[in-house]
Design a protein that fits this description.
- This protein is of the alpha/beta class.
- It has one domain: Hexapeptide repeat proteins (UDP N-Acetylglucosamine Acyltransferase, domain 1, 3 Solenoid), CATH 2.160.10.
- About 20% of the residues lie in helices and about 30% in strands.
- A 7-stranded mixed beta sheet has the order 3-6-9-14-17-19-20, with no helix packed on it.
- Strand 19 and strand 20 form a beta hairpin.
Length: about 200
């Protein structure tokens, strides 16, 4: 299977064999991405312009006004599309074997992972590189708090808030506060949640 066909199959959620033996382009793409992530993460904060140029070359799309703190890791990079006014805090990992779409005005706290990939459960298949992936979509105006894991196929609706430490296994409706492991909608976010600002 060629690399383009493999990526298409992964994005469709199909089970594939993606070992380096079956598709050497996978190892090349992972290596290129690892090198770029390493270079990005080694730059000092004073080199933000260079850092942002490297991120723009790594990722599929980046909107205006974005901040991604180091360290940052992803698998391919080109499957990640980020909207305007994005903040990704320290230690963000995005395993993008399938598409990851992040809307405008999204904040992701420290130590978060967005994971599109899963592996076969049986030892023989897992060791043979059998895997599947499903896209992740994060809507506009979402806040994902610290230490959250978002699993394959999840969609987080516009305006939702995901509480710290949550493991998001199923999609979350818009404008909901959702928490827990597994993450579940707790209640809507309403005007009653507005805080007094001094």
């Amino acid at each position: 299977m060629n690399f383009k066909s493999l990526l298409k199959a992964l994005n469709q959620g199909l089970w594939v064999s993606a070992s380096a033996k079956d598709c050497p382009d996978v190892a090349d793409a992972l290596g290129r991405c690892a090198e770029l992530c390493h270079e990005i993460n080694m730059l000092p904060p004073s080199k933000s312009d260079k850092r942002n140029r490297l991120l723009e070359s790594l990722l599929g799309k980046v909107g205006e006004r974005f901040i991604i703190h180091s360290p940052f890791r992803c698998d391919f990079g080109f499957n990640i599309r980020i909207g305007n006014n994005f903040v990704g805090n320290f230690n963000l990992a995005i395993l993008d074997e399938a598409d990851v779409e992040i809307g405008d005005n999204v904040m992701i706290g420290p130590n978060c992972s967005l994971v599109t990939i899963t592996h076969a459960l049986t030892v023989e298949q897992r060791n043979a590189g059998v895997m599947a992936a499903r896209p992740i979509k994060v809507g506009n105006n979402v806040w994902i708090a610290a230490n959250v894991v978002v699993l394959p196929g999840v969609e987080i609706g516009e305006g939702a808030v995901i509480g710290a430490g949550s493991v998001v296994t199923k999609s979350i409706p818009p404008h909901m506060l959702a928490v827990g492991n597994p993450c579940r909608p707790l209640r809507p976010v309403t005007d009653a949640d507005r805080v007094e600002v001094f």
